[in-house]
Amino acid sequence: MELSGIGRRAFSALAGTTVLGLALGGSGSGAALPPAGASGPVPTGPPPGPPAADGRRHRVALDRHSLLVDGRRLALWSGEMHPFRLPSPSLWRDVLQKMRAYGHNAVSIRLAWNQHSPAPGAYDFTGVRDLDLFLRTAAECHLYVVVHPGPFIGADVDAGGLPGWLAATGARPGTTEPAHLRHADEWLRRVNAVVARHQFTRGTGTVLLYRADAPDRAGLTHLHERVRADGIDVPLLHAGTTLAWDRAERTRDAAEARRAHLADLARGSTLHNVHTAFGGTSWGWLPAPTAPSPTYDPSAALDEARRPTPELAPLHQLGHLLRHVPDFTRLDEAAEVRAADTRLRVRHLANPDTGAHAYVLRNDSATAVTSTVPMDGTDVEVTVPARDAKLLATGLRLGEGRRLAHATVQPMLSLSVGGVDVAAFVGRAGEMAHLVIDCPSEPWPTRLDEEAAWAYDHGKLHVTVRLKEDRLTRLRVRGADSDRTLLLLLADDAASLRLWPYETPSGRVLVRGPELLREAVLDGDTIRLTGDTVGERELEVWAPRGITRLTWNGRAVQGSLGRARSLMAVWPLPGVPEVPLPELDGWRRRAENPESAPDYGDSGWTVADRRTSHSTTPVPAGRPVLFADDYGHHYGDVWYRARLTGAAGLESVSLSYATGARGLLLAWLDGEPLGGHRPAGGDDGTGTWTATAGLDLPAGLRATRRARADGGDSAVLAVLVRRTQHAQDDPGAARGLVSADFEGAAPEVRWRIRGSVAPDPVRGPLNHGGLYGERHGWHLPGHDDGDWEPVSRADLPRADPRQGVTWYRTTFRLDVPPEVDASVGLVVEGAPAGDHRVQVFLNGWNMGEHAPGRTGAAHTFVLPNGILRTRAAANTLALAVLSDGESASGPGAVRLVPLGRAAGGVPVEPVPSPGRRRG
User: Fold this and answer.
1) Does residue 613 contact residue 854 with C-beta atoms inside 8 Å?
2) Strand 820-829 to strand 893-903: parallel, antiparallel, or no bridges (unpaired)?
3) Whole-prediction pTM value?
4) Is the pLDDT of residue 91 over 90?
5) CA Rg value for the chain
6) What is the pLDDT of residues 182-207, one digit of tens each?
7) pLDDT in tens, 219-249
8) Are strands 357-363 and 344-350 parallel, antiparallel or unpaired?
9) DSSP H/E element including 354
10) Is the N or the C terminus of the chain less surrounded, counting Cβ atoms within 10 Å?
11) Given 3-state DSSP classes, what are the helix, strand and coil percentages for the chain, each rounded to the nearest 5?
C-alpha cells in the first residue's frame, strides 16, 4: 500500500486535534468569513463560479461544513494526478480538460523532489518539470489546485520522492535535524517561489490549498513557518485541520468507487479527493518497490493512455452533483433511518438551510438487496446491487416551484438553462427508476422518449422509467404551479458519461452526445463547442436564450429547435477514422558489457574503498563500502570490478547484495559468466530485498586458471547489479553490492564502481543508469548504428541465450491526421522465462522496464504523444535486454498497438528529445 507520508502513524495520532493552533482557516487576506457584522453560519447557496487567474483578490476560509470562497460554500471534488507521470506538457491540458468535464473542480498534485534535483543545490523547473506551466494550464482549465510538495510524498515514487543524493548526505528524512532541514527547506523555497505566484487568494492563479505533511508537532510548526515565510497565504491542509481531507484508497471498479466516495459523503465530508483521477506512467527509474510496473494505477478513472475506465461513471455523476446541487455543501447527521432488510446500512443526513435530505445506502453483501427505506414519510422500495451503494435524496429543489419528494435513483444535477429547469437522475442499466415530485396542481407531462411513463396522484407526480443501456430518457413537465418548463433526464451510467454541463460567463450550458466536451463559448447567437468524438454521435444543446447556431471544433453544424427546448444537430457528429500503425522492422542488434572483460580499462572508475556510510544498512565489519549511493550512483544499473590478488585455488564467489523490487545480479570472472541471481520474492511488495548469490566457478574456468603461468593468482571479478528503487519506508537502505566472500582462496581485493554518467539535462536524473550503451548514447536518437548486426523481426524472440546486455534499435514513422488524438502503445510479449529484463527507450526517453520474471507476461508501454512523434516524423526505439545466460537475449515479440483514438484532442508540441551529444 502507498504511504501518504513519512510518519503516517504519527499523523493518525494528531488527527482530530488542532495542532499548535495551525488550523486550516484564514487565507492571509485579512478578511474573515462571513464578513464582519454577520452572525451565524454561512447559509447554503449557489457555489462560486469557475476559478481563474482573474486578477482579483479572493477570500478563502472554512467552517466545519465546507470551504468558503468569497463567502460562498464550495464542495471540493478534487482529482489527483501527478504531472511528473505524464512527460508531455501539452497533454497536461488534455487531462485537465477531461477532469473538469468529468465533474472535478480541483486537481490535487504531488511534486517529486527527485524529478527536479539531480544533486544538492541543483534544481530544474523547465521542460517536463515546468511547474509554472502546469499551474497556468490548470487555471486556464478553470480548476482549483491543491499542492503537495512533500518533501516526502509517497505516491509509489522512488524514495517517496526524496532525491537519491539525500541518502549520502547524512540527512534523516522526516526529522527536524539540521542536516535534513537544510536540504528540505531549500527544496520548499524553490517550489514555493513558483506556487506563490499562482495563489487564488491573490488572483494570480488557482492554487487554493497547500498540503503540509510532517511527522510530529515540531515538524509541522517548522513547515508552517517555512511556507508562510515563503509567501504562501492559502490555507494549509494538515493532520489537525478543522475539515477532514477525505482521500479514498485505490478502488478496483465502479461499485467499489461508489461505495468509497459515498462513504465519505455519508460522513458529511465536502473536501473530497479521488485517488487516482489520472494514473500515468512511472517512467524511467521513477517507480518505488511498492508499484514497480511502469503503469502506475490501472484502475484510475482516466488510464495511462488518457482513456476513460469503468470506474469513471460514478465519479462523473458525484462530481457534477456536488458542483451543481449546493444542498450537499452543508450536511448534518439526521435522525437514524433503518432499512427493512438489515443488510442495507443507511446513513441519513440533512441540510438545515434547504430542508433537503440525503440517504446513503450501502450493501456489502454478495447479492442484490431489495428493501423498503423510510424517506419523506413514505416507505420507498429500493434495490442496491451487490457490494454497491446508492445516494438518494428528498426535498431537493428542481428549478422554480418544484421539489423532489423522493426517488429510487441518484440525482446528478439540477440547473437552469435559458428558460428551462433541467434535473438529471442516474442509475444502473435495467433498473426501474421511480421519481416522485411534489405538484399541488396537476402538471402537463410530455413524453419525449418512449421509455417514460407517469401518473398524478394526490399532489404528486410519479414518473417511472426503465433505464436502458447507453440511453437517455427525457420527460418535459409544464404547469404545476410554475411558469417554467422542467425537463427530467434519466440515464444509465453509460448515457450519463455523455451529459456535459458547462458554465460560461453568460450562463450555463448543457450538452448531450459527444464523448467529451472540452469547452463551450457563447459568441452572439452562436455557441462554439470544442470536444471529442469516437463514434458518430447526436449533438443536443441546451443554452441561454438567443443561441440559434452551433459550431463543433470550428465547423458550423446545422441545427434545429427540438421538443426538449434544445438545439439539435440535424446530422450526427462524425466519428474518428482508423489509424494505421506500421510493423516494427529493420532492427539492428549489438551486444555490450565489455566491462566484464579482464583487460577492460577501468582506471577512470571510482575506487570503492570507503569505510563509513550514511546508509541505514550496516557496513560489514572490516569490509569496504560498496553501496552505490555512497559513490553518487542513485538510479539504474551499477557495475563493479574487483581486481583479485592471491586468488589461486578459487572455487566459488558469494556476493551479498540489496535491491528494490525485481533486482538482478550478473557476474563474470576473467570474462567468463558465473551466472545470474535475483532475490527470492523480489517481484513485488515493499521495501528492500537482500540476497546472497553463491556462484561456483565452472570446471572449465578452473582448469583454464590453473593452466595459466601464474596459476590463477590474479583475477578480475565483474558484477552488474540492477539495483532498482529506493524504498519509501527506508530510503537510506543500501542498493548494490554489500560484500563479497570467496571459497578456496583468500584474495586481496581492490574494488572500483561505475554507474550512470551525468544526468540528462532534458530528460532528468531518473532517465538512465550505468549500462555501457547508456553511457555511450546507444539509447539516443541519432546514434550511428550502421555497423550493428541487422536482425529480422521474427528473430527477436529467438535470439541465442547469452549472459549480459544486448541492445536492439529501429526507427518508425507515424502519420496521424492533425485532427485525430491517437494513443499508441508498445507491446512486449513472448519474453523467455528466467531472469530477463527489457528496458524500453523511445527517442531517448526511458519508458520503463519489462520484467516478465518466470511468467512471460506481456506488458503494454504507453508512448505519450509529444515524446512519440505522430506527424510523419521519425521515432527511434531502443531496447536494452539483460539476460542471465539461460534465457534468450532477445526482447520477445515487439509491436505497436492502438490504445484509443478520438476526433478532437489538444494541440501537441514535440517534447525535446536531443540525440547523442558530440565531443
Assistant:
1) no
2) antiparallel
3) 0.94
4) yes
5) 31
6) 999 999 999 999 999 999 999 999 99
7) 899 999 999 999 999 999 887 776 767 666 7
8) antiparallel
9) none
10) C
11) 15, 35, 45
